[in-house]
Design goal:
About 35% of the residues are buried. It is built from 14 helices and eight strands. The N and C termini lie close together (about 5 Å). It is an alpha+beta fold and about 375 residues long.
Length: about 375
């Protein structure tokens, strides 16, 4: 049984792949999936529980289908300390798919890029790469004055589900971008070190050992704390990715070096040298491709580390800053004991998605390792 057949026969691999593809599609089409803007709060709508769905008109008893009513926070009950809800039953608002909502630009792309002014000073600015297409169409939502808060609202009256969807963009993309950067550096350094050897190998491996001995979380906290407060979250995101990537390539470089040392002794490498192939040609065309399977597996297993690092930094206030949502800064409400007790849905949703994403990547990585490990193949 070949590698792909073994992978296809593993149901956990398919389930984890389906979960990850679904999450990344939701993040990519967040403007379309989210029913409300993640930045606009509802007046007197802070910390609302998940909206109750009704099927009959609460005044006349008439069947209306799925609908909600405008709901806001009322006065505090002095005996229990609970805040009463004020529901306007005179304005039923139907729930449906493909409804009109807030305006956004579909497929808009903005990236932080360096800009140089006339004095020669370089600053990072968010530059629009593609303007996108204006639209008001949303996958689901309500029509009318009533708002359907699937997961309730946060302390600012913002829809928690919409913020969760938009937060996936930061929390999921950091793993892909960070892994791509760190693996390119690790593969190049490891390949050169293992192939060239000598004093260059010694110097590079001492650098790797220094990086591997660095306490990662303390370094991240220290570097994130000195970031200028005036930078945008997009720029902060790029700096965090760069910081994590530059300390995460060392482990891969060490393993790639070991594999290159083994591969360069093979006959096909000796033949390439005899034919006059350059060292760069041999590394890129003959040696590094032999490590592709391992790097794919290792990349899949390393992505959760980036996601957890961003979540930890945002949780302590050093990562993505509000009002922009990320799963990490949404978890920062866990520092408020009353939120955990009275509004647990604000914590459970982002925590569940982080756990689900990390677990799916780990399962997929283990499945790839089982499928491509030549020592575990059965005829």
């Amino acid at each position: 049984m070949n590698e792909w057949a073994r992978l296809k026969a593993n149901p956990l691999a398919w389930i984890s792949t389906l979960v990850l593809v679904s999450l990344y599609l939701i993040a990519f089409f967040a403007d379309f999936v989210a029913p409300y803007s993640p930045y606009d709060g509802l007046k007197n709508g802070g910390l609302l529980p998940p909206t109750q769905i009704y099927w009959r008109n609460q005044q006349t008893g008439e069947w209306l289908g799925a609908h909600v009513y405008p709901t806001v926070q009322g006065a505090i009950d002095l005996q229990t300390g609970d805040r009463n809800l004020i529901v306007d039953y005179s304005q039923p608002s139907p729930i449906g798919f493909l409804v009109q909502g807030f305006e956004y630009r579909f497929l808009q792309l903005r990236l932080p890029l360096p800009q140089t002014d006339v004095q020669g000073n370089t600053t990072w600015q968010d530059v629009e790469i593609f303007a996108g297409f204006p639209s008001r169409l949303h996958l689901l939502g309500s029509t009318g004055e009533g708002r359907w808060h699937l997961l309730g609202t946060d302390d600012q009256g913002r829809d928690q589900f919409s913020r969760l969807v938009y937060g996936a963009r930061y929390s999921l993309s950091i793993g892909i971008v960070g892994t791509a950067i760190s693996f390119v550096i690790g593969a190049i350094v490891g390949g050169i070190s293992g192939y060239v050897g000598g004093w260059l190998d010694a110097v590079l491996m001492r650098l790797v050992e220094v990086l591997m001995s660095t306490p990662t979380i303390y370094l991240l906290v220290s570097l994130s704390a000195i970031l200028p407060p005036e930078i945008s979250n997009a720029q902060r995101f790029m700096l965090i990715v760069a910081i994590i990537s530059l300390i995460s390539w060392a482990g891969l470089a060490r393993v790639v070096r070991g594999q290159v040392l083994s591969i360069k002794a093979q006959d096909f490498v000796t033949a390439a040298k005899a034919m006059g192939a350059s060292s760069w040609h041999i590394i890129w065309r003959h040696i590094l491709p032999q490590t592709t399977s391992y790097m794919i597996i290792a990349a899949t297993l390393s992505i959760p580390g980036f996601i957890l690092a961003e979540s930890a930094l945002s949780l302590v206030g050093l990562g993505i800053q509000p009002p922009d949502p990320s799963w990490g800064n949404m978890l920062s409400m866990a520092t408020n004991a009353s939120i955990i007790v009275l509004q647990p849905w604000l914590i459970v949703a982002p925590a569940t998605l982080i756990i689900l994403t990390v677990l799916s990547f780990n399962i997929l990585g283990d499945s790839l390792r089982d499928a491509f490990d030549p020592r575990d193949h059965k005829q």
